[in-house]
Structures are given as C-alpha cells and as structure tokens.
Amino acid sequence: MLRNFLLAAAGCALLVGAAHAQTMAKDTKGTSDERAAAMVAQMTQDEKLILVKGYFSTDFPPTRFVAPAEGRAGSAGYVPGVPRLGIPAQWQADAGVGVASQGGAKSKRPHTALPSGLALAASWDPEVAFAGGRMIGSEARADGFNVQLAGGVNLAREPRNGRNFEYTGEDPLLAGTIAGHAIAGIQSNHMISTMKHYAFNDQETDRNAGNVTIDEAAGRESDLLAFKIALEKGNPGSVMCAYNKFRGDHACESDYLLGQVLRKDWGWQGYVMSDWGAAHSVQKAALAGLDQESGFGLHPDDNFGKGLGDALADGSVSKARLDEMVTRILRSMFEHGLVDDVARETGEIDFEANKAISRKAAEAGMVLLKNDGDILPLAGAKTILVIGGHADKGVLSGGGSSQVYPGDGPLGGNAVPGIAPTFWPGPVVYYPSAPLAELKKQLPDAAIAYLDGSDRTGLAELAAKADVVIVFATQWASESIDVKMALDGEQDALIAEMARANPKTVVVLETAGPVKMPWNGNVAAILEAWLPGSGGGEAIANVLTGKVNPSGRLPVSFPADESQLPYPGEPRKGEIAYTEGAAVGYKWLDRNRLTPLYPFGYGLSYTRFTTDALNLDQDDDGGLSAEVTVGNIGEREGAQVVQIYAAHEGWEAPRRLAGFAKVSLKPGESKSVDIAIDPRLLAKWDVETHGWVIERGQYSLAAQTDALAEGEAVGFSLDALLYYPANWSMPKP
Ligand code: BGC
C-alpha cells in the first residue's frame, strides 16, 4: 500500500516537474501527503539527506559540534531547510513545561514556565492542559521555533524516576489524555510537537543501556496505551524514540515499537525523530522506522549523515526508504502549518498574560492532602511563621533539558542562584514568584515572619508561639538522575520538630514526585503544590488563603515507603523486567492490598461534595457511558473530579480508571455529567487477534473519590465478546 502510494506520488511529481521547472513548497496544492510527495519528487538526494539529520544545539554544552549559524539561540536542535524549494528549517526547542532555552543565560529572552507535567495532570482537566500547551507553543513561535520537544507521556511506573515531573502520571487514561491535550495546544500555533520518549523509558538510571522487557499484553495495556491515547488526542507531528532498549533493541532501532506498533497497528503517519544521540545505527534504525536522527554529534557515528549516504550507495537502505522518511517529515511540516506560516523570530510575548495562564494551571493542579480541623484556608491567624523552601524568594523547578530559564528580563532571573548542582543536571532554578510576599499581600492583618530553617536553634520555641506554622519543603529532580522518594536534605526532621512544637503546622510541598512523609500524622495540613511554575508563589498563596479552592487530585500514588514498590531496591540497571506488568501505581497497590500514604485520585477541597449512584447508558453504537450527578453541599464554590473505576475479575488489578470529568459547582449547585467509558479499559489486549477483547462476564463501574476508595458499584454483564482493533480510537465528543 505504502509502496503504491510512493509510486503514485513519484508519478504525479514527474508530471508536476514537467509542467513547472520548480514548485516552491508553499505553492504546492492538495493534501499534506500530496504536497509532501510533490516536494520529494523535486529534491536531490543531497537535499533529502539534509532533512533527516538534526544538528545539536549551538548552546548545549559541550559546543564541540555546532549547528550551522541559522540555528536559533537557545535551541535544542536544528534541521536545515532547503531554500531552493522554500522548505523551511526545523528549529527545535525543548520541552513540555515551557520553552527551555538551552544555554540558559545565553538565550535571548526569558520564557514562562508552566507547572510540572505532574501538576498539569493533577488538574485532571484537559482544557487546562490545552491552554498550557497553547501558551508555551505561542512563546516558542514568538522566538522562531517550530518544533517543540514536548509531550512526555512515560508512565510514572518508577516513582523515583527523575523525569516524572515532565510526565503526566501513572495511569494510561489520565496520562494520555493530559499529554495529548497539551500537544494539541502546542500545535495550535502552527508548529509540530513531539510525543516522547517512546517507549518504556520510565527511569533515568542506566537510561542508555537498560533493557526493558514486559509481557506483550501488559505492555499494550499500560505504557503503550498511554502513548496511543496521547496520539489520538494530540495528533503529534513527530514521535521521539527513547534512549533505552526494549526487548534487546534500542528503542530507535525497534522494529516492534516503530514498525509494528506505531505504523502498522496505530496507522500513525508522522515522522519519528531520535532522542538526542539515541540513533545507534544506520541500516537497523532506518529499516526499523527511524526517520530523523537528532543531536548529531552526540553519537560518535555520523549515522544519518555520511552513514546513510553510504548505505544508499551500497543498497543496504533503499532510496524508497529515504523518500519515505522525507515524505513523513514534510507531511507533518505541511500538516501543522510550518510551511505556510514560516516561524520568524519576531513575535511578541505577553509575559503577564502567560504567567496568569501558568498560575491558573498551578492552582488547578494543587492537591490538598490533609486539612485537619479545617485549618486551611488561613483565616483569623494573627501570627504566622513561614519556614524554609526559599519561600521568601520563589518556587522550585525541575532540571535537565526541560529546564525553563526565567532569564534576566521581565520574569526576573533565578531567584536562588548557586545551589548545587550548578551545572548539569543542574542548575537548580527557583522562579521569582515568592509565596511569602503573596501571603503578606493577601493577609495584611497578620504578622508574617520568615526563617529559612537552616539554623534550628530556638526555632521550636518561635514555632510554638505562632498561631500557624507553614513549612515549605522541596524535592528537586532532573533529567539523567533518579531521586529518592523523599524530601531533600534534613527537611523531614525540620517538619517533625515544627509539628511537635505546634500542632497547627501546615506543610506546603514543592516536589517533583511522590515523597514519604514520616511526619504525616503529626501535621495539621498538607498541600502538594508540585513544581508550580512561573506564577507558583501566587498560586500557593491563593490556595492557602482560600482565594482559590484546591481541586487537584493525585496523578500518582504516594506509597507509604519503598517496600510498597514492585522494586523496593534502587532503580535497576541492565535487565529491567517489568514483572508487575500493567499493574502500575495504584493497580499494584490495590492488587497487593497495600495502603499507601495517599492513593492516585486523592485530593480534598474546602467544600464538600455528594455523588449519586451512577446510571449506565449505552448509545446506538454500543458505547458505554456513566451518568453521575454531583452536588456541592458546602459553602464555597469548588470543583470535583468524578472518577469512574471499572472492576472485573482476571485483570492485572481489581480496578482501572475508565473515565473522568472535572465539574465546577457553586455552593448548593448540582450537575449531572455523562462520562464516556473507554472500552479499552474494560478490555484485555488479545495477542491472538491482535486487538482489544472485552470478554464475557460480570463487570462493574463505580464513581470513586480515589483509586482505592469505596464507591457504589453498578454491575452489568456481557454475554458476547466485544472486539476493538489495535488502531481503534475513542470517538471525539
Ligand atoms: C532528552 C530529550 C530532549 C533532548 C533535546 C535529551 O537529553 O532526553 O527529552 O528533548 O535531549 O534537548
């Protein structure tokens, strides 16, 4: 079929070539496929080879391999265009939480950082994810970038993965939905977003050599399902294959991942780019389905440069395959507007407006974990002692290639420079949005003091005298390292001491991911603010004072300790067998009857909600939906996340999230929502028929307040098998 298409395309281009000596890219007509084919037909082999090799950024250390001068400041990578034919360059910028100017200070201007990917996922709100994506895409375009290296959807299978903050949590439906909407938001700016790191790149330890294995059905029902859902919601122009190995092959050489799953099973038509330096061969990678090598210079061999030229000459890679690579790249460039609306470095950025978008996303994702005696929102406290976490200066962000630098301009620079590591995987960056200043502004009648907590002498006495103590605590994480499931340094001891001194101790967590909380039982309140982005300080203050009612729910479980993980020891090296299969996160806990500190889906509000028993509906096409009525019976406006969990014997775990919706309610209001159930979450992957099979038997659905909570289950039975093919997508609402 593909071969026929290429032949037809070549034929059509010959005709075009005969009529016009040369057609510029923007003047081509027809579908993206037709336009791509018309260009390929006019290109020389040398021109085609230009498009399949991406240069390493000029600003990345080390600068041994430099991109041509047309690469843009702060860029992660650069693929030259073909000016003769009007094919623009691909200017690539990291990453998922904002435009991450590599080289930091060298970049031309600052950028707005969204809260972390986990915070976006904690909003459980696709619109928040879309708005965030649209915002960062607009900043990328304003600086002349047209490919955003975003869309991280690796499951938080290993809670200590140092990159979990870039991703969207442990559940395939939530992670895929949020990442997909963020991708769609980015691409609404006439640019391409990647979806990455495909696939099973769930830890940083041994990330270049670790070999992941998983049972076929389990892989489809977990990590691959998350990617598939992100693909159908976001339609990314490109997929970035990962560093790790999968079943013995590097992900960028994996015929299974690239050829079988992505192309044959899912029918995806964009182009695969390698992660930076993750292309390890010419022939194997090219034949498996890698279309573009990125980060040339990071890998010692010039794979898709001279190497591919040689392979074409000796026939080990066919010219048709090169045409296919180039067609896919050009197709995505046409499809997403890169040709018709060429990126220029002349855009304006409205930093105030963008910071407000980031702040709202942070607010939507904050999770109130504990609130004994309704100590929050802060009301009536005359004396407040704020301790630690650099709350007087700003809020923490995550490190590595996704690091968004606040620059020195309108966003004010790194609020706490000099914290180690100051070079890769650092620097540690705090955005200058100080919770303390915002608290003072919002609570003018309270006496608010700040101490950094480094000297604990006499601190307990001071804490005892305050009406309320608020301890800010942090966990930094970064690409290329895994982290402990714990707060950094001595912060646990500090919190424990403050809680002993004053029972009215509130803890605000700025963590990259789940942490243990040995002091959990002794503090009055806990607010998980994640890495909250450029407007994070204000967002935290807004939630603490009640200007905003927290409505986030955990997108990852917080285990009580490492003994509750499938692999309690350090993250593994070498052979990384996912013997837990699809039982990731809450599914593992549920299956093993383990009680975590806080489960997936959990989160409190300043108001109270009721949830009526759900009604099951089936539409004419057999699609199932759950109708649920939720009410707000408290005094404040708030938002409830209705979570529908399905249960069936014989799955990897007792329950699976099968649908969700976030509903805003005024006091006294009630609303009814229809939540479509994704049938793949009632199904098992069937190896024989290569698709999703919902087997006969008993099922139930329940609206729950978290993954492990009780809910009134509504049972139903199926007396005939239902089958959904591998490329099945949830219909658009
Ligand atoms: C990361 C990618 C990133 C790329 C370019 C790699 O180290 O894994 O996520 O997009 O660098 O900066």
SSE topology:
Blueprint (H helix, E strand, L loop, with lengths): L1 H18 L12 H9 L4 H7 L1 E4 L20 E3 L10 E5 L22 H6 L3 H17 L4 E3 L22 H16 L4 E7 L12 E3 L2 H6 L1 H12 L3 E4 L3 E2 L2 E2 L4 H11 L5 E4 L8 H6 L4 E4 L6 H12 L4 H17 L15 H15 L1 E5 L11 E5 L7 E2 L33 E2 L3 H8 L4 E5 L7 H7 L2 E8 L15 H11 L3 E7 L13 E4 L7 H10 L29 E3 L8 H6 L17 E3 L3 E4 L5 E9 L5 E10 L7 E11 L4 E7 L7 E3 L4 E4 L2 E8 L9 E5 L3 E4 L8
Parallel strand pairs: 1-11, 3-4, 4-5, 5-7, 6-8, 6-20, 7-10, 13-16, 13-17, 17-18, 18-19
Antiparallel strand pairs: 1-2, 2-3, 8-9, 12-19, 14-15, 21-23, 22-23, 23-26, 24-25, 24-29, 27-28, 28-31, 29-30
Helix pairs in contact: 1-2, 2-12, 5-6, 5-13, 6-8, 13-17, 14-17, 15-16
Bound molecules: beta-D-glucopyranose (BGC).
Bound molecules: beta-D-glucopyranose
* Beta-strand fraction estimate: 15-25%
> Mind telling me the C-alpha Rg?
26 Å
Euclidean distance between termini CA atoms? 31 Å
Shape: globular
